[in-house]
Structure prediction request, 155 residues.
Amino acid sequence: LFCPAVRGTDGQQKDTLNNIRATGEFVVNIVTEPLAEAMNITATELPPEVNEFERAGLTAAPSAVVRPPRVAESPVQFECRLNQVIIISEQKGGGNIVIGTVVHIHVDDSIWREGNYIDLEAYRPIGRMMGSTYTRIAELFTINRPPSEVKPKRN
Prediction:
């Protein structure tokens, strides 16, 4: 899921949400530290006729299952089909929750490791906190789960 906001300048829905409603499909491209500036350009409130890929210097790659393109530079992309849009507020600064079903996942070989895991230090994803504030992974730690207390059923 992700949460597109209502545009602050005119109170209209962003093109991303309009496109999802029209097609029933979308791609979630995970943003990394090297892609942060390009992502910020794509977040600009632009008219529908402006190509955000071109404006941000990103490459549109064909998806495997859905119609919308992927961001080729993103090392992880989730191709999704729309399940539901939940409207939080239609007022300026309001937003929506877009929930989809992942139908295909792309993971770049540069971050995939044997043993079937993603190397987070190589990946370097970022996350949006609020407004113009983002976070990066600065320190990783592991907490092992305690053993299960549920006894297996015997037949």
In short: The beta strands are 25-29, 60-61, 70-71, 76-87, 96-107, 112-113, 117-118, 126-130, 133-136. The mean pLDDT is 90. DSSP finds four helices and nine strands in the chain.
